[in-house]
Amino acid sequence: MDSDERSSTMDAAAADTPADREFPAMCVGPPHYPVDVVLSLRREGTARLLRTLRSHQVLPALLHPWGSGEAYRSLLREPDSLSLLDVPDGAVTDDLVQRVHVLSALSSVVVLTPGHIDSVDLLRAGAVNVLPRDMPPLELAGRLTAERRWLGTSTRPRGRRVSALPQQVSRPRQLSQGILLDVLLSSVRPWCCHDLCLLLGTARAPMSRRALQARMIRLGERLTPYGLSVTSTVQWGRTTYTGISGWSGGNDTRPPAF
Hints:
Helix content is 37%, strand content 15%. It contains ten helices and eight strands. Helix 4 (69-77) runs parallel beside helix 8 (175-186) and helix 5 packs across helix 9 (193-200).
């Protein structure tokens, strides 16, 4: 077990994913930071980066591992959120393009990479910028500030739909279930099962399809009493989730047993 896995644990009642158990629950930094959330594919390298840039006030002081429910929840709360995906030396990068693709559904993404990683595929996958990690701190701080300024003046839609559960339906108490629900409610595009497994897994490995299916079944069971369901299609062995549907407007106001 390496230092990433030994780092810390989250409140077991708040999350049930391996990624959420690796790190403590963290809140997004103050709103004046240009970057809302820092996600790391290797904690130690990102921690050094945060210390280096601390005096420039561009990054929140706390970092999140890939798969952190706290990080995703913070990004989903803001229509124009900006995340920084840090890829230190030694991080697993085989599926980096796909990670950028799925994260870009939740926020605008700037990727920090070692010099040997080509930026073209990452930009095509949805990154708004790809920057080298060895850039001088002052220049990196300036570029991140410029990205936030661009987001503030751009009229580009974020691709979110306005969708909310009826007031009668209580939100899940479990963080992992709540994040899954928020992802299905907020994204305008369908979610392939492989993309969701990658989003909800760890920096080392995606969640298994069996675990995702079990989580979807539990979520569906809690929504069914209210005429709601997780909508999905299956084709060629691939399941695609398109959202939450079926609200019938019934009179039963009892909250589900989340």
